[in-house]
Amino acid sequence: MQLQQTKRHNVKLRLGISGASGFGKTYSALQLAYGMTNDWSKIAVIDTENSSASLYSDLGNFNVLNLKPPFCPERYIRAIETCEKAGMKVIIIDSITHEWQGDGGCLQIHEQLGGRFQDWAKIKPRHQKFIDAILHSGCHIITTTRRKTDYSMDTGSNGKSRVIKHGTKEITSDGFEYELTVNFELINENHLCKVSKDRTNLFQGKPEFVITSDTGKTLKAWCNQGISLEQVRQEINATTTLEGLRHLYQKYDVLKEQIKPLIIERKTEIENTSQIVENKDIINSKTIKNNGTDNRTNSTSGQ
Question: What is the pTM of this model?
């Protein structure tokens, strides 16, 4: 058991995007993920929305795992593990609603067990393992959540009445929002969003906005705060082994793009130094061997 100082660069973001159907949850999640990685190939979408993510394949070569029913917690967990093993940096779970209210999800499992209050004792641990898989993942994770849809009448600037669609309660387990770093709520079909939870203090109290890749860049920069690139450079220069360099490359995951050239340069220096030492050892070995031969020759001549 040991205390240690917290470091911002160790933070893995848990971001939520919720909204009614058609408000742009999938597209917004992809934009957010690209801003965080600047590399489409390091983004994976766990798609439960009838392959909706593939509609945006023109954006870039991101990865898709199409998850079909039953949407039990264990299948979501396996999907997350598959993305982690593939080396993804950002995992988008689109959406988590099915794990709760989908075919084979928690509510249906509860109903099949009899729908009694005591039956939740069998379901809650399974659901919690799914939440834990999100919280303990080594990747940044973006979850999308459906909201119940409601309608209201509004009067436009032209004086005519129109029907407005908006989302109400999130369709997932109560309290899930508490686990998130930031929760974005899309409020209309123009993809405008507001923030209902914000541990970063980057968006709280600010006007409604549209999520873009710049939003992801802002969040990534927040993760990097508190890290001195110069300090990392000094650590790299002080490292004398290739294994040490590999450790630093993994340690400063969010700075990989900035430190990669430094790592490569130091790797070359270490390899060159090792080669020089090896050559000296060979020369010294030959010198000792030759001296031994000369001594034996002189000894024979003396006889």
Answer: 0.73
